[in-house]
Structure prediction request, 488 residues.
Amino acid sequence: METLTTYLLPLLILPISIFLFLQIHQKTTKKQETNLPGSSGWPFIGENMDFAMLGAQTYVSQRMKKYSQDVFQTSLLGEKMAVFCGAHGHKFLFTNETKLLTSWWPESMKKALLFPEFVNNPVKEVTSLQRNFIRDILKPEALKRYISEMDCMTRSHLENDWVPYREVSIFPLSKKYTFALACKLFMSIEDEKHVEKLADHFTLITNGMFSMPINFPGTAYNGAIKGGKLVRDELMNIIVERKKKIMKNEDINLKGDLLSQMLVMKDENGEFTTDMEISNSIIGLLVASYETTSSMVTFVLKYLAEIPEVYEKVLKEQMSIVESKAPGELLSWEDIEKMKYSWNMAREALRLIPPAQGSFREVITDFTYAGYTIPKGWKTFWMVHTTHKNPKYFPDPERFDPSRFEGSGPAPYTFVPFGGGPRMCPGKEYARLEVLVFMHNVVTRFRLEKLMPNEKIIFHSSPTPSNGLPVRLIPHNESVRLANTLSM
Ligand code: HEM
Prediction:
C-alpha cells in the first residue's frame, strides 16, 4: 500500500501535473539556464521513481557514467538539483558553505517536523544560538560524562531484551535501544510506555519525511505529517511540565539533561529561547540520531556475525579492556580511547553501508563548477556513494578491511558518512560512543550467528535489513563448552 500510494499516485495525477509543470517551467527556465549534463526526468515526479527503484548507489553511479564524473543535473523531491560527485565535489560543497550555498531541507521534511509558522522561515528553524549550543553539548568533552550511563543502559537492555532469548532480531532492538538512550539523555524520560509511544510517532516521521509530498490518507507523507503533529504536541507537554519543575526547584536530578539546559539558555539580548524553538531542536536531534545510529549499530553487528577474523580481533581488544577493570566496573573515556580496532571496524561498516545517503544545500548565487553553470535557487546534493565505493579512493572497494583506517586513513573528502565542513554532523562523537559501548557489551557476552545468510538491505530513511537481521545468540560460556565437546 505504501509503495502504491507513494510511487503510483503521482502517475494518476499526471495530466494535472504536466499542465502545472509547463506553467511553472515556462516562468522559470529563463532565469535558470544551465549547461549541466543530465536529465530532469518526468514532469512533477522528476527522477524520484528511478532513485527509489534503483537505490541511491546504482542511481548515482549510472548517471556519473552517462553524464559526468564531476556534477550532473536531476530533479528530486520537486526541485532542480545539481549532484556533486567525487572527493572534489564534496570538498567544493563543504568549503563553500555560506559563500555560495546555504542549508536546505526538503519541504516534505520541514512540514513533517516543524511547527507550521517555521516552515517558510529558514532563519528561525534552528537559531544559530541553538546550533552552537547543540555543537557544544555534543563535543567529546561534554559527552564523556554520559559514557557510564550509556554502559549502564546497554547492560540492562541486553539483560532484558537479549539474554532471555536464543534468537533476536537486531534492527528493531537497536532502534528500541537508540531511542530510549536519546530520550533519557536529552529529556530524562525513562518510562518505557512513554518512550514507546514517542518512538511510534517518530517512526511515522522517518518513514515518510523523504517521500513524495502527496498528502492523501494512507501515503507515507501523510503519516509523517500526522506523526510530526503528535510528536510536537507531546514535546510541548514535556516542556510545560519541565518548566513547572524548574519553577518549583524540583529539577535537581534533571539539570544535566539537554532540555533543562536549553530552557535556561539566553541569547545575547538576554531573551530565553521559545518553547517552539526548543521543541524544533529536540525533534531535529531525535530524528537525526534515531534511524542513523540504529542502522550503524545493526550493520556493525552484521559484519561481526559474518566475518570471524574481524570478530576475533574486536573480541581480543574488548576483552583486554574487561581484564583491566574491576568486575562490574563501568566503561570510562580511557576505555573508549583504547577501542582503536573496534572503531576502525565500525568505520569500515559506515563506508560500506552508510546510514545517511548525503545532504542538500541551496545555491545563493550563480557560480561555475567544472565548467558548468549552477544557477541561483537550484539545490545541490552530495552523496556518500560517489566516493565510498570508488576504487580510485578505496581499492577493492567491496572488501571489508578495517586496516584502511590505520595510519593517516583515507584521503580527505573521500570518507564522508557524517558530511564535512561547518555543517558536518554534530552527533558524530555521540554515535561513536554509542556504537563502541554497544559493541563492547555484545561482543564480550555473545558470538552471533546470522539466521538469514542472504538477507536483503532495503531503504527507508536509512538502510535497513529486510527482515530485521535475525541472529542466534551464542553466550561465551556456551561456545567454550561447545568447543570442549568438539575437541573430545
Ligand atoms: C551514524 C550516525 C549518524 C550519521 C551517519 C549522521 C550523518 C549526518 C549527515 C550526513 C549530516 C549532514 C551533514 C551535511 O549537511 O553536510 C548530519 C547532520 C546532522 N546530524 Fe547527524 N548523523 C548521525 C548521528 C547523529 C546523532 C547521534 C545526532 C545527535 C545526537 C545527529 C545530529 C545531527 C544534526 C543536528 C545535524 C544537522 C547539522 C547542521 O545542519 O548544522 N546526528 N548527520
About this structure: Confidence is low (pLDDT under 50) at residues 1-31.
